[in-house]
Amino acid sequence: MKLMPSRACGFLFPAILLCASFLFLYRLDHRPLWQDEAETACLAGSVLEHGVPLAFDGKNFISQEEGREFGSDTLWRWSPWLQIYIAAGAFRVGGFTTEAGRFPCALAGLACVAMVFLLIRRRFEDPAWALVAALILATSVVFILFSRQCRYYSMGALLATVSVHAFLGDWQSRWKPAATLVLALCLLFYANYLLFFCYAGSAGLAAILVYRNRLPLVRVSMLACATALLLLPGVFLFRLGQQSGMLDFTLIFGSLGRYFSDCFQFIVPLPLVLVLLWKWRDAVLKRRLPEDPGERFALFLALIILFNVTVMLAVPQQEHRYLLHLYPLAAMLLAWVIRKLWNRQKFAAVLLGLMLAFTNWLHILPMDWLGIVNRPWQNGPTMLTSPNIPLRLFLTELFSDYPDVNGSLIAFFNAHARPGDTILTTYGDLPLQFYTGCRVIGGLQGPALLRGKTPDWVVKRHYTRRNRELMLNASESAALEYIGRSLEYEAITLPCPDEMYGNRADPYYHRFIPEREPYQHLVVYRRKVTGDEGSPP
Questions:
Q1: Average pLDDT for residues 289-299, to the nearest whole number?
Q2: Where does the chain cross the membrane (predicted)?
Q3: Same domain, 387 and 438
Q4: Is 430 helix (H, G, I), strand (E, B) or coil?
């Protein structure tokens, strides 16, 4: 592919960035925060009040792990604090709004688009490759959805991309890229330590295999020691030694299908994986590395993705969010494939680029034909697990009024609950804490946090939740006990579907188009009597 004139590049990249700005930033408050986002938001509110994230604000507990996240001082120790303090800063500037909470994360996702362009442009002086990489990432609906969440996801992706950019610099002799590399990895740890361990180990192994001659032992040792020293406070603060279940190597074979199907269905299509395996067969079998710097970098990216997905097999929670930091790397890899194809067949390269940027056909259809597509039973034809034009689905949702399950509950309780009312819900307690002034119990808080006043309202969600031991959540049992008292509680049926999560970004759960009747309606139970009769047995 011939180098693109600077004038064309100077026009096309701002155009891509402008379109991406709309996709990442427009109507961030379209739907309310869902459970995980609300956890971050509630903790951020605690930071503004106390200076540190506390899991109790005097009225409500913040917990999704039955109280394991904190001790007697209620100091939050379960997950790193970077996302919490960034959200707190956003709330300080923009107020306690959905848009303010999501804005820094959406901005980080947009920065990823700019970063992949700058990385390729500066390190390989190939603006066409850089533009295609930016376009693929900017139109990735999965990446957009996760970036529009008040969580660490896009921050992790940005920090991983920055670390790759710094690694390609002359960190062996200059302190600025070396410090950038160390800082990016440390911030990745304080964004999510699981991402750090999986990514840093994978990138390190890939660097040894591909760039061994660029790894001076003394310099590497110095940077490793500096990184370890900066991580040490977090190791103790977040009680990593007590984080049971973070890795379980007995789950590797059971997770094999899930994580690799995630990779093939949403990140790098299976046909291109097979093509790359064939192209790099000598590098794999004979350890003959490519001479071309661009191709060697593409191999480096592919190995990071492969090793990272492999390490994730030992993680009990099989969640797509743990792979999001690989999307910018995959965008650069896929753009390189298009770049190489352009040299052989320009029409095929354009067709491949259009398919990768604007459809998910190459990801889904081959998996469908082989009968190995991962499509859970609750997935419909207008979700990302079916062949679609993802941007059309995303824009359809963005310009429509979606009957969000959390939004419906928030609106109902803000209209009907009295100040000081207690709500027991089997899920979605944290959005209610953030958006209403009520005391909210239940959810995944565990039995110890359910004691107290008999609830004025009960929400028994349709989908039953279980804890890590696969036992019925205490809130489920309590809700069934209360609503079984037919003389005390009356049912109120709301005109909206009782979806499983709400605005969850995971492609296996995110709906762009709401369910149609018949569906399971959301039901709220109101207490008809007064008096404090205690908790159910």
A1: 95
A2: 7-26, 101-120, 127-146, 152-169, 181-211, 217-238, 259-277, 297-315, 322-341, 347-365
A3: no
A4: helix
